[in-house]
Amino acid sequence: MMAAPAAYKILVVEDEQDLLRGLEINLTREGYRVLKAASGDAGLRLAIKENPHLVVLDVMLPGMNGLDVCRELRQKGFSAPIIMLTAKSEEIDRVVGLEIGADDYVTKPFSVRELLARIRVQLRRQPPRAPEGLAHYRFAEVEIDFQKCCATRKGKPLELTAKELDLLRLLIRSRGEVVTRDRMLNEVWGYEACPTTRTVDNHILRLRQKLENDPARPEHILSIYGEGYKFVD
Ligand code: CA
To answer: N or C: which end of the chain has fewer CB atoms below 10 A?
Structure first.
């Protein structure tokens, strides 16, 4: 038995505004929570930030196309089902071969009813989970398993404290955006006894020592002067 639709968050990545809006209306009517993106890059960012339960992903997108988005999400450890929207028959082979890591596809033009049925099939296979659950993530030679609270770099185990993991998860979920020290204090330290922005800086320093090739010239955890920090892959 499937959980109530409201327990599921679905990301739709589609650049045709009418179709995007139509899907949003229909999915919302079914009770799903809907996130929208109109480009591949925005879709990729949102998927990592929000960790939806399912992604409906158009193949033909401006800039980064749907196949690349799908491949990159899988490389990063994103494991929720992905249903591709394909227009051209030649794309189907690549998608169906699943070499890019998609779970299913529908060919345009498709009926909403058909897409909804396929969404239900995919969701039935996975129970709803906490939206926080960025389960794992890979970048450079680092692999982090947030569920098991462990990480490796170049295949060797990395010792990360719980706070370092929380901080890293916040940075990765906000990948490409500046995260202020205040936000880090609020979301990672909460109401714990008087941490200061210095505490944040010390943790960032230690994360860099563990994750960066050259901690003095970080490539992934960047300082944004006067604002905070930003994670980039
Ligand atoms: Ca399109």
So the answer is: N
Cα of 60 vs centre of ligand 1, distance in Å, is 4
C-alpha angle with apex 129: 123 to 134, nearest 5 degrees? 105
CA of 16 to the centre of ligand 1 (A): 6
What's the predicted TM-score (pTM) here?
A: 0.67
Distance in Å, CA 61 to ligand 1 centroid: 5
Contact predicate 93/73, CB 8 Å: no
State how far the Cα of 218 lies from the Cα of 100, in Å rounded to an integer: 31
Residue 199: how many CB atoms within 10 A of its CB? Answer: 17
Question: Which residue in 92, 89, 79, 93 sits closest to 122, CA to CA?
Answer: 79
116 and 202 fall within a common domain: no
**Tally of structural domains, the chain:** 2
Q: What CATH number has the domain bearing residue 167?
A: 1.10.10.10
Separation between Cα atoms, residue 52 and residue 65, nearest integer Å = 19
Distance CA(161)–CA(169), nearest Å, equals 12
Per-residue pLDDT of the chain (233 residues; tens, 9 = 90+): 566 676 789 999 999 999 999 999 999 999 899 999 999 999 999 999 888 999 999 999 998 999 999 999 998 888 899 999 988 666 666 665 567 888 888 988 899 999 999 999 999 877 655 445 577 888 989 999 888 888 999 999 999 998 999 999 999 988 888 999 988 988 888 766 667 888 899 999 999 999 999 999 999 999 999 899 999 98
One domain for residues 206 and 107: no
Task: Report CA(8)–ligand 1 centroid distance (Å).
Answer: 24
